[in-house]
Design goal:
The complex is a heterodimer of chains A (about 200) and B (about 350). Chain A has about 200 residues and is α+β, with helices and mostly antiparallel strands. In chain A, about 25% of the residues lie in helices and about 15% in strands. Chain A has a five-stranded mixed β-sheet with strand order 2-1-5-3-4, with helices on both faces. Chain B is built from 13 helices and twelve strands. Classes of the chains: A alpha+beta (about 200), B alpha+beta (about 350).
């Protein structure tokens, strides 16, 4: 009986790359995570820090549900690796306001009934906060254009627009962008009164 | 995503060395396209070299009056930079026509040149694609090719380059600065991206390991008469079916200088210098623009579902040139035109 020997097909199995530490400042608190390099910022927030307010929608940067603020600027956390944000200051929906003290945008979304199912709302609010930080949009057309990275499957766009416009048009409601320099502490959310209806 | 290691580069030379030291390594700037391709398993690098700590994110005026965009400057910072808004409004408009605010906050200027086609078949691992897997065949030819190219295509690939920003950069005669294992060099923008030919897997003329470090804009920005017209399936946050970057230097109605480049129609931003030459010395009239549009599309080839692009591109060229001439018309078409002088 002849013996058949065969070389392994294809590449030999590769060991997984090791995890590595990454330091993130999230909602004013320093965290060091030991994670695999392919962990997205979104998965780091949801799976490692239990900050599940940030939502996973499409996971491809097309819907905006995962929007968070990095150094004051809105980004899609699904298209960014956590290891790329060493020492970044990240703000999620959990850091914008509290149950007792909603942020002006959070209050405006309630006052204007700016959602139905609510799944896109954390991303919408973080994106709107980024829009306000940028200071570019003034008119309704400009707000519509600069909110186009956030999709609402329920179609609550007209109420989202009116909520954002209310905060934009009332300078007293705008949270000042502190510049987000490295080492900045948690932004001061306190002095803003919710809108009187 | 497959398993990979990640290092954060702190100097260009170190990044280039790190790239050479690994098989299948990739540079990562903002990552907005690369990470998506990795999730789809279209890109499978085993090592990523982070670039965000290299610096190279500044925008500065050059001694010759031009402007240097650092390769790591974000698309958003570039579009809203005071010098870009004032002196290169065509570039401002093109950048703001692309992607979403979130993506523009992450995506870098160098990365914008390196983004890959959005041809459906390139992304669909279940189908042949010569760009993704050389020699496997082109599914778009004879397939669903509504988004595909009509100019400079080959029998192996009809994919388009998806960028808006690059269409303006092509029109503005940008120079690409790169650094690699053999030192630094510059590449003229028109020579940076390739036509597919027999090697559609190659998008550009970078040598292995080369890294884009900056983009140099010449002093001339055509800030008085310009238009970036983008036609797409929805009014925001969609890739161009056809886009036109038009820039004119006018003396009354006499055209002294002209630039014309198209997006969404070819494997690279499609700049037509012969068409530009046809414009110079002519009066800026609809007749002139129609003649030029016919010339740009004279060798266009439709593939069925995308044949509509030929007529669409002709009309887009005429409209963009008209908008560039009568700047008042542009005011109605873009929510942000008012921010320009």
């Amino acid at each position: 009986m002849s013996q058949v020997t065969q070389a392994p097909l294809g590449r030999p199995p590769v060991a997984l790359a090791p995890t590595q530490p990454v330091s993130l400042n999230i909602n004013g608190e320093a965290h060091t995570l030991q994670i695999a390099p392919w962990t997205t910022l979104l998965d780091a927030l949801r799976e490692y820090l239990d900050l599940t307010g940030t939502k996973k929608g499409c996971d491809h940067g097309q819907c905006g549900a995962c929007t968070v603020l990095v150094d004051g600027k809105r980004v899609n956390s699904c298209l960014s690796l956590a290891v790329m944000h060493e020492d970044s200051h990240i703000q999620t929906i959990e850091g914008l306001g509290t149950e007792d003290k909603l942020s002006p945008l959070q209050q405006a979304f309630i006052d204007h009934d700016a959602f139905q199912c609510g799944y896109c709302t954390p991303g919408q609010i973080c994106s709107a906060q980024g829009l306000i930080n940028e200071g570019k949009a003034k008119t309704e057309a400009q707000v519509r254009e600069l909110m186009s990275g956030n999709v609402c499957r329920c179609g609550a766009y007209s109420n989202i627009l009116s909520a954002v416009m209310e905060v934009l048009n009332n300078e007293g409601l705008i949270i000042e962008d502190k510049g987000w320099s490295a080492g900045a502490t948690k932004p001061d959310m306190a002095p803003v009164e919710p809108p009187k209806k | 995503m497959n398993s990979f290691t990640f290092t954060q580069a702190t100097a260009v030379a170190g990044a280039v060395q790190d790239k050479a030291a690994h098989d299948d390594a990739a540079y990562i700037g903002g990552g907005t396209n690369l990470i998506d391709l990795m999730k789809e398993n279209v890109a499978r690098p085993t090592h990523l070299i982070g670039l965000k700590k290299l610096g190279l994110d500044t925008i500065e005026t050059l001694p010759d009056g031009g402007l240097r965009l650092g390769a790591l400057a974000t698309n958003a910072d570039t579009a809203w930079h005071p010098e870009v808004e004032k002196r290169y409004p065509l570039l401002n408009q093109a950048i703001l026509a692309g992607a979403s605010p979130q993506l523009r906050n992450m995506a870098t200027d160098g990365g914008n040149l390196m983004q890959r086609t959005r041809c459906y078949y390139f992304y669909d691992l279940a189908t042949p694609c010569n760009k993704r897997e050389p020699g496997s065949g082109c599914s778009a030819i004879g397939g669903y090719n509504r988004v595909c190219g009509i100019l400079g295509t080959s029998d192996q690939c009809i994919a388009t380059h998806p960028s808006d920003m690059c269409v303006a950069l092509a029109a503005l005669d940008t120079t690409v600065r790169v650094s690699g294992p053999n030192g630094e060099r510059t590449i003229k923008f028109e020579d940076f991206h390739r036509l597919p030919g027999d090697h559609p897997e190659r998008d550009n003329t970078l040598e292995p390991g080369e890294l884009i470090t900056g983009l140099d804009l010449p002093a001339k920005g055509f800030e008085k008469n310009f238009s970036y017209l983008k036609l797409r399936d929805r009014t925001s946050y969609a890739f161009a079916l056809v886009s036109v970057a038009a820039a004119l230097e006018l003396e009354g109605t006499l055209i002294k200088d002209a630039r014309l480049a198209l997006g969404g129609v070819a494997h690279k931003p499609w700049r037509d210098k012969e068409a530009e030459a046809m414009l110079v010395g002519q009066r800026a009239t609809a007749d002139t623009f129609r003649r030029v549009a016919a010339k740009v599309l004279e060798n266009a080839k439709g593939y069925g579902a995308n044949t509509f692009k030929i007529e669409l591109a002709k009309r887009a060229i005429v409209r963009a040139l008209k908008q560039a001439t009568e700047m008042n018309q542009v005011l109605d078409t873009n929510a942000f035109q008012n921010s320009n002088p």
